[in-house]
Amino acid sequence: MPTATMTSKGQITIPIKVRKALGLKPGVRIDFYEVEDGEYAFRPKTGSIMEMRGCLPKLDHVVTIEEMDRAILDHAAKLDAATRSDAYEGVTPGEAA
C-alpha cells in the first residue's frame, strides 16, 4: 500500500503509483470528499461547463445580428477613413491630383 509523509507545511507528495492510477499531472486540482467521520477520499477535479454559470453578468440588452453588422461596418469605415490619403481633397472628379 502506497504511503506519504506530510511536511511541517502540510504538504505531501502523492506516490507515483497513485498518480499514475489517477492520471494526475502537474497543476491538476484535487477535490477531497469526506466518506466517513474522519476519513477522506480524493479525486482529480474535473471541470464542468455548469460551473461557469453566473460568471458573466446578464446583459440588459441582447444585441441583434443587424446591430453587430452595423457596428462592424461603422468600425471598418472609421479605419478606412483613417488610412485614406488627403491628396485628392479639393480636386474635382476627372481632374488630376
Identify the notable features of this structure and list them briefly.
alpha+beta; 2 strands; 13% strand; 27% helix; 97 residues
Task: Please characterize this protein's 3D structure.
The chain has 97 residues and is an alpha+beta fold. It has a domain at 54-83. The chain is built from two helices and two strands; from the N terminus they run αββα. Strands 1-2 form a two-stranded antiparallel ribbon. A hairpin with a 2-residue loop joins β1 (30-36) and β2. The longest helix is centred in the last third of the chain and has 19 residues, at 65-83. The protein is elongated. The termini are far apart. The mean pLDDT is 87.
User: Which assembly state applies to the chains in this document?
Assistant: single chain
- How many helices? The count is 2
Could you give the order of strands across the largest sheet? 1-2
Mean pLDDT: 87
Report the strand count.
Answer: 2
User: Which H/E pattern describes the elements?
Assistant: HEEH
Topology:
Layout: H1 16-22, E1 30-36, E2 39-44, H2 65-83
Antiparallel strand pairs: 1-2
Summarize the structure.
This protein has 97 residues and is an alpha+beta fold. The chain is 27% helix and 13% strand.
